[in-house]
Structure formats: C-alpha cells, structure tokens
From TrEMBL:
It comes from Peptidiphaga gingivicola. This is Primosomal protein N' 3' DNA-binding domain-containing protein. Residues 686-699 have a biased composition (Low complexity). The keyword tRNA-binding does not apply. Residues 43-139 form the Primosomal protein N' 3' DNA-binding domain. It comes from the Bacteria. GO terms for molecular function: 3'-5' DNA helicase activity; ATP binding; DNA binding. The keyword DNA-binding applies. Residues 686-722 are annotated as: Disordered. The lineage of its organism: Bacteria, Bacillati, Actinomycetota, Actinomycetes, Actinomycetales. Pfam families: PriA_3primeBD. Keywords: ATP-binding, DNA-binding, Nucleotide-binding. GO terms for biological process: DNA recombination; DNA replication initiation; double-strand break repair. InterPro entries: P-loop_NTPase (IPR027417), PriA_3primeBD (IPR041222), PriA_3primeBD_sf (IPR042115).
Length: 770
C-alpha cells in the first residue's frame, strides 16, 4: 500500500523495509571459575540498539566484588564502556564465548533493583533509552567521598526506626482545612499508598503541609521523597521539614559539587537519610521502602528533563509510587493537565479546600478595566492602580509584578510596528538601562545600524517594558517609598522574603518574595503578556497568577489583587473563586475532544525530512506486523468507517492513518528548544559560511561540485553538519490505552533505524507540548 505525505513524499511500503529477524534464544548453562559465573550487565551506551543487557564472565578475582548493583567496566566490540551488574547466575542466552569483566569500579552496590526497574519502565513509557536514565540515577563515583563514607559508616544499611502504633492528625495541621486531608494522612500512616492531587489554598504553608505528610509516612517506618522545581524551593522545604520532624533530610540538587552529591547519594543508599528533598534529579534517589513521593508545582517547566527521554518528574514519581506501593502527592495551587489526567483516569483523588477555609483565605481579585473611573482602561498604569497602591501603602507592603525583566526587553519598528529582530540570529532586540543602541536578547550583538526589513525604517519604539523601567516609573510616582527589586536580573537577585513594613516590591513571575503577614495588595502590569504564547500557555498563566494571589492577605484583612493591562474574564472568574480544579477539568475536556495530550498518547519525531520518512516506514512495518499477528485485533477505533477509508492518505485536516488505530500528523517545521539559542546562532552562522563557500565555488575557489569538502571528500554540511534547513517534526497519536504499544513499536523501530544506520540521529519525545 502506498502512502504519500505532504513534504515527505511516499513512505516505503512494509515489504520494502527489511526487518530484523526475531530469532528465539535458548538459555544454556555456563561453567566458570566461580559459583555464579555469569554477570548480566546493562551497559551505558547511548545508541538505542545497544541499550540492553549483555552477559559477561566473572573471573575468580572479582567474585566477591562483582555484586548485583555494582558499577563495572566491560568491553563491547572494540570499545570499552561502563555499566551496572543487574543480575548474576549461571545461565546465558549468548551463543558465543563470554568475555570476562574488565574491571569492577567499586564493590558497593550503587544501583538498587527498585531504581533499575523504574528506569526500565520509564524508558519503555517514553520510547527512550534506559542507559540515559541510569546515567541520571547514579552519579559518577567519587573515590574520596566513598572512602570517607565507608570509614565512617561502613557499607551496611542503617536500621530504621520502628513504626508508631497510632497516628492522629494534629489539631493545628493545615491539612484540616482540606476536604479529605486528614483521611489522606491517616492512610499514609497506616502503611497504604493513596494518590492525591491537592489544590493548595491561597496563603497556606506548603512546607508545613509537606512536613505533616512526611511525618505520617515516617510514622509507618517508611522513607519519603519530595521534589521541587528549583534549588531555592528545595532548600526551603528541606530546612522546614527537618525543623518540623527532627529528621535528617538529604538535599539532592544537580548543581552541588560532585563530592557533596556523591556523599549525599551514599547516605541515602545506606539508609542514613530516609527523607530526601531535591530538584528533578532527586526522582531517582535510592530511598528504600518508600512511603511517600511528593512533587511541588508539577506544571513547572523546570521539572521536565531537557535531554532524552524528556520525562516529566511528576509522571516518573507517579510510576515510582505505583511500583513501590507508596503514596503520591501533587501539591500546587494550579492543577496541571497531567494531574487532571490522573484524576480523570481514577489514578488520583482531588483534595481541595473546605468552602469556609477558602472564603477565609482568598483575597479580592479584580481587573483595572472594571473600574468606571478609568477613562483610559488600557493605560499601563491606570488611575485605579495608583489609587490601590497609595491606599495599600498605608497598611503594608505592595507587590508589583511585571511579566519581563530588564529595561525595555522588546522593541518594534516605530513606523510599521513590526517586531525588531536581530539580523544575525533572529532574536528580539531590546534596550538596557543607559544604553542608546538596541541589543539582541539572544546573541548579544549590538544593532546600531538596524533597519526594518519591512519598511526600511531605522527608528524603534518600546513594545514591552521590563521590571527595571517599571521600578523607575513607580519610583517617580511614589517618591520617598522604599522599592525592592526581585528577579534574576536584579542587582540583589531573587529575594526570599521581606518584612511587613510599607514598601513596594517589583518582581518578575516566579521571583515574588514572601511578605511577613502577606502583601496588602498586588498589582500585575501588562497582564496580557503574562500568559505567553504556544501550547500550555493557559496553565502557564494560571501557575503564575496563583502564585501572586497566594502572596496576598485575605479579603477580610483588606487583601486585593488587581490585574491591569488586559486579562481574560475566564481567568478572572477562576481566580476570584479559586476554581483551578474546574478550569483544569474543562481544559482537559477540550483537549480530549481534540485528541491532544495528555488525553491521547502522542509521539513526536524530529529530524531531517528524508530520515523521518525512513523511520516512519520502519515504524509502519512494525505496526503492520503486529496487526497481522493479531496483537490488536480486538482494539479498533469506532470512528473509522472502513479500513480502506482509514488508510486514505488524503484525510481532511492533514491527518493520515499510519496504521489501524494510529494517526500521523505533519510534517511541520521543527521548533528549536528555547534553551538552544547558541545552536540557533551556530546554525545561522554556519549557513552564512556555507553560502559564502558556494559563491566562492562558483568562481572556482572550492571543490569541483561547488560545496566545500574536507580531506575525505565528504561534504562538511551533510548529515553531521549544523546547517539542517529541512528539519521537520511529525506526530503519531493514538488512544491512551494503546500508548504502551505505540511506545514499544517506536522504540523497536528506533533501534532498527540506528542499528542499520538508515540516517542521522532523530529526536523522539512522548507527549510533547502541543
């Protein structure tokens, strides 16, 4: 059957893809120098087709040190690689003679069976490589830290305290303000594993709530793991939990020195620290007998891995909780789409505040455009905003939030209003304080001679004003009032907290310091820019807005939050009633109707167009083979009128049926990650150099084919080059129930693609941001 995709051409037919033969392997007994001579080693090789367990022979000299979980060095072909022993016995499926272990790095079993099983499961769920996750889970050995730990504590696991016979939620516990909160803690203390998504009340103490949950888990004699988006929040939680529970809390963050990280890892591994708090790298901490895993603000982009397999910390923790029978808690003022998916599928219960507690804690929320006295409702600082700040300063601090940092972070042509962009890398141009010339926000290049490509104009105007310019304007409007700036670009950085005396705090989203007793008022400027663009912008806005509202005093104490500069009435009503759970449910229903993640399972494949085409052919062959074997004969989509119609390549909306139950969308131009700015600049510069080389070649100054070549005659801008102008992304989607099947086929197809060297590398991402 032929299939033609716009921009990709015709996919290879199933019979054109030579599949790897699936030969059944028989186990055989191996006789060696020791009792269990075969070590099963998961080698840390990044190639997908080599992401598996290899068998090696254990020499007599390594018998005592080659324990399950130990790190070893082995030979794979002509290469030497490290890996972990995941099993030892006397059987092997390898047909040839086994090669011996090269070296045992340390006899300490640093990889636990629970963590290894989690890595394998997450890799299968994300169609990725377990080796990538094992590299995240177990830090590289630090000999001095290991020697000091063994000298002080030895390698034995420390004895844990016994579980208490009875547990009761304290009278002053913040969980008593939530429907089902005390029952959730009671089940944890009883040794059970409930799962809950808690919509945090405004003004509540998240650290105290986490400390109570940790106390409940420790009452059952089990360990705890808490993950936060940033190091700052993780440190605050670790200090608060340690003070409230009296436990020794391990802090696991990626930017710690290697020696400190490995020392903390060993303390967790040997059971000295049973409570772990950290950033997303703490997901893989080897806490034994887990009783609670908790994630704070799971919608934060900081909680998603930036490298393959791009797993979200909340999803990995939920999988770990199921594997180890632990309780799962997602705590945030915003209910994320992934948390809502767990609620919809019955995998977690929603815990929300009591109505009386909500009324007592919620501040007043309004928009500046609602005030009739405002003649210019779209003024950046309307009269009502000035009146609110003036009145609030008599009773306490005022928070002013600006969506962007800097002085003038975005500019446009003064004539045609086209956004001003850098001629080198395409980044936006902005102005810093005291500078007369605009500068690129991506590559930092000065644009003194910038000209608008649309109209040829050379003058620019401000489009958005940053926190520094806002502080300057507010300082002029309220002379004599103290102003504190908080943000990554502020001179004092991000401020943790301020006192309750009257002052104005200017902050960017995510850097709002807590005020003693809460802010008397909060003013959000340029609210329409707080939402941003692209997929997930709604949840992103809710996250930022909830954090601001939670910093303000209750309405009964005069607390007031005002949004100026345009806010959607839907968001305003939601914040006024603290209806984030209902908003998330409605948003999830919309995405379910459109078959968008997380209601449906999506796989994004990114690469050069011809490579993506080849991979899709391999994937389709795998799906057809499974269908022919009857793997999914009972699972059909009811919306397909007939098999012939389902495989019509010209379906409306650009959706093509790749196989029965699996749909293909795209291709579309691939979007570089936001943190890939330097690579974007390199691509642009390399493209300019290549163009210059081609021009020189036309004049006879380069190779005979008009492309600059290296000594081997291969093009420098071929597969290995950075000038990949035809990089595209396609999406394969299916029902959530078929997600594990699609992930397995996608993973197998990727292994075959790399094993046969069909083309350059591809990027596979499950449930992308669409």
């Amino acid at each position: 059957m032929d299939m033609t995709l716009p921009g990709l051409g015709e996919l290879p037919a199933a019979e054109e893809q030579a599949g790897l033969l699936d030969v059944a392997r028989a186990e055989r007994e191996v006789v060696g120098e020791v009792r269990s001579p075969v070590a099963h080693v998961h080698v840390l090789l990044r190639q997908p087709h080599l992401d598996k367990v290899f068998d090696y022979l254990v020499p007599a000299s390594m018998d005592s040190s080659a324990v399950v979980g130990a790190r070893v060095v082995v030979d794979v072909g002509a290469h030497r690689a490290s890996g972990f022993i995941v099993g030892r016995d006397s059987t092997s499926e390898a047909a040839g003679r086994l090669r011996p272990l090269r070296r045992v790095v340390s006899s300490l079993p640093v990889l636990t069976p629970e963590v290894y099983g989690l890595c394998v499961d997450v890799a299968a769920r994300c169609a990725g490589s377990a080796a990538d996750l094992l590299s995240l889970a177990v830090p590289e050995r630090h000999a001095r830290a290991e020697k000091a730990h063994l000298a002080a504590h030895g390698g034995a696991v420390a004895a844990d305290r016994l579980a208490v016979e009875s547990y009761e939620t304290a009278a002053g516990s913040p969980w008593r303000a939530y429907l089902g909160g005390p029952a959730f803690l009671m089940r944890i203390a009883a040794g059970q594993g409930p799962s809950a998504v808690c919509c945090e009340l405004p003004g509540s103490d998240a650290v105290a709530m986490l400390a109570d949950a940790v106390s409940a888990a420790r009452a059952s004699g089990r360990g705890c793991l808490v993950v936060a988006p940033t190091r700052r929040e993780a440190s605050r939680i670790a200090e608060g939990v340690a003070a409230a529970t009296g436990e020794s809390v391990a802090l696991v963050v990626a930017d710690e020195p290697h020696e400190s990280r490995y020392a903390a890892f060993l303390r967790i591994l040997t059971g000295i620290d049973r409570v772990v708090v950290g950033t997303r790298s703490a997901v893989w901490a080897p806490v034994s007998d887990l009783g609670l895993v908790a994630v704070l603000d799971d919608a934060s982009p900081n909680l998603r891995e930036q490298h393959a397999p791009y797993v979200r910390a909340g999803e990995a923790l939920a999988m770990r909780a199921v594997r180890e029978g632990a309780a799962f808690l997602s705590l945030s003022g915003c209910v994320s789409l992934s948390s809502q998916a767990m609620i919809e599928r019955g995998e977690a219960a929603l815990v929300r505040g009591e109505p009386s507690a909500l009324r007592a804690s919620l501040p007043r929320v309004s928009a500046a455009e609602q005030w009739e006295r405002d003649d210019a409702s779209w003024s950046r600082l309307p009269e009502s905003a000035f009146a609110l700040v003036r009145h609030a300063l008599d009773e306490g601090p005022v928070l002013v939030v600006v969506p962007r940092a800097g002085y003038i972070p975005m500019t446009a042509c003064a004539s045609c209003r086209e956004i001003a962009r850098c001629e080198t890398c395409g980044g936006g141009l902005g102005l810093d304080f005291g500078e007369a010339e605009p500068r690129c926000r991506r590559c930092g290049l000065s644009a003194a001679r910038w000209r608008c490509p649309e109209c040829g104009g050379g003058r620019i105007r401000a489009v958005r004003l940053g926190s520094h310019r806002t502080a300057e304007e507010i300082g002029k409007a309220f002379p004599g009032t103290g102003i504190v700036m908080s943000g990554s670009q502020a001179s004092e950085g991000i401020v943790d907290s301020v006192s309750g005396k009257p002052r104005i705090v200017v902050a960017t989203p995510g850097s709002e310091p807590a005020a003693q007793g809460g802010y008397r008022a909060a003013l959000v400027l340029d609210s329409r820019f707080l939402r941003g663009d692209g997929p997930g912008s709604e949840i992103g806005f809710v996250r930022k807005a909830c954090r601001i509202v939670a910093r303000v005093r209750p309405a009964r104490d005069g607390g007031h939050v005002m949004f100026a500069g345009g806010i959607d009435p839907v968001f305003l009503r939601m914040l006024s009633t603290w209806g984030q759970p209902d908003f998330a449910a409605g948003l999830y229903a919309q995405r379910r109707e459109l078959k968008l993640p997380p209601s449906a399972f999506w796989l994004a494949v990114t690469g050069e167009s011809r490579s993506v085409r080849t991979y899709l052919g391999v994937l389709r062959s795998s799906l057809f083979a499974a269908e022919a074997q009857g793997e999914r004969s009972a699972e059909r989509h009811g919306d397909a009128a007939s098999d012939a119609q389902a495989r019509d390549p010209l379906l409306a909306g650009g959706i093509v049926r790749l196989a029965s139950g699996y749909e293909l969308l795209g291709p579309v131009p691939s979007a570089r990650p936001r943190n890939d700015a330097r690579r974007n600049v390199a691509v642009r510069n390399e493209g300019l150099r290549a163009e210059a080389g081609n021009n020189a070649a036309a004049r006879g100054g380069a190779g005979h084919n008009g492309v600059g070549q290296n000594a081997s005659g291969r093009s420098e801008t071929g597969h290995g080059g950075v000038a990949r102008k035809d990089e595209v992304t396609v999406y394969v989607r299916c029902a959530h129930a078929l997600g594990s099947s699609l992930a397995a086929h996608a993973r197998a197809a990727h292994r075959e693609y790399t094993a046969k060297q069909f083309g350059p590398s591809l990027r596979l991402e499950v449930d992308p941001d669409v």
